[in-house]
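Lab notebook: predicted structure, single chain.

Context: the supervisor wants predicted structures on file for every construct in the current expression panel, including those that have not yet been purified. This is the next one on the list. No modifications to the sequence; it matches the entry in the shared construct table.
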Amino acid sequence: MFRKGGLARLEEEIVVCARCPRLRTYCRRVAREKKPQFRDETYWGRPVPGFGDPRARILIVGLAPAAHGANRTGRMFTGDGTDGAGSSDFLARALHRARCANQPTSRHRRDGLILRGVYLTAIVRCAPPANKPLPGEIARCAPYLEREMDLLKDLCVIVALGKIAFDQTLSLLSRRGASLPGPRPAFGHGVRVAWGAGFPIVLGSYHPSRQNTQTGRLTPAMFDAIFREAKERAKERAKKTGGF
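Prediction complete. Output recorded below exactly as produced.
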C-alpha cells in the first residue's frame, strides 16, 4: 500500500523501491561499471521518479529510464546522449518549441530545465536489460503511474511514447473504469483515444529513440504535431471538465 502524500512523498517511495530484484541488480551493475565517457560521474543507479509541473495538464509516458541516461542522471528523459541526438534532447527541443520547457536540452538534474504544464514519467522506473522490462515488472510498477494520475489534479491529456506505453496506459485507464471504444484502438503515431468526461484523452506517438529519429520514422514536425494537439485538447478538456 502507498502512504498518502503528494508528489514529493511519492518520489521518496519510488526512489527506494525494491520490488523488482532483476532490475535493481542491473541498475546497480550499470552504475558501477559505467560507460567510458561517463566514468568520472556518479550514477544515480536507483528507480527514477517522475519530473515536471505538478499542475500539469499533459502527462508524457515513456517506457523506462535509459541505462546511461536517467539511470545515470536520476531524472526522466535526461542525459541519454551528449551529441544532441538522444531521445532526451529530441523531446526537450519539442517541448521548448511548444513553449512547455524553458530550454531545448535535458542533460543533467541541475541543468535548469523547467517544464510548464507537462509532467514526464514512465511505465517502468528502473532501466531494464536490453530496454525490455518483463510483464511482471511492468505490473509491479503500474501503481506508481496510477498514483501520479491521482496527484496530477489538472491532468487532461496523456501522450504515450511507443506501443508498450500506449497499451499499458489504455489498460490502466480501463482498470480505473474507463470504457474502451471497440474495437480496441491499435497503436500508431497520432492515434487519439477519447474516453469522455472523467478520464484524460490518450494520444499515441512514436518514441523519440535514435532508431526512430535517425531513420526519419519520427521527425521534429511529426513530434510538434503531437504536442500541438495535446495542448489544444488539454485546453478544450479543461474548459469542459475543469481537468482530470
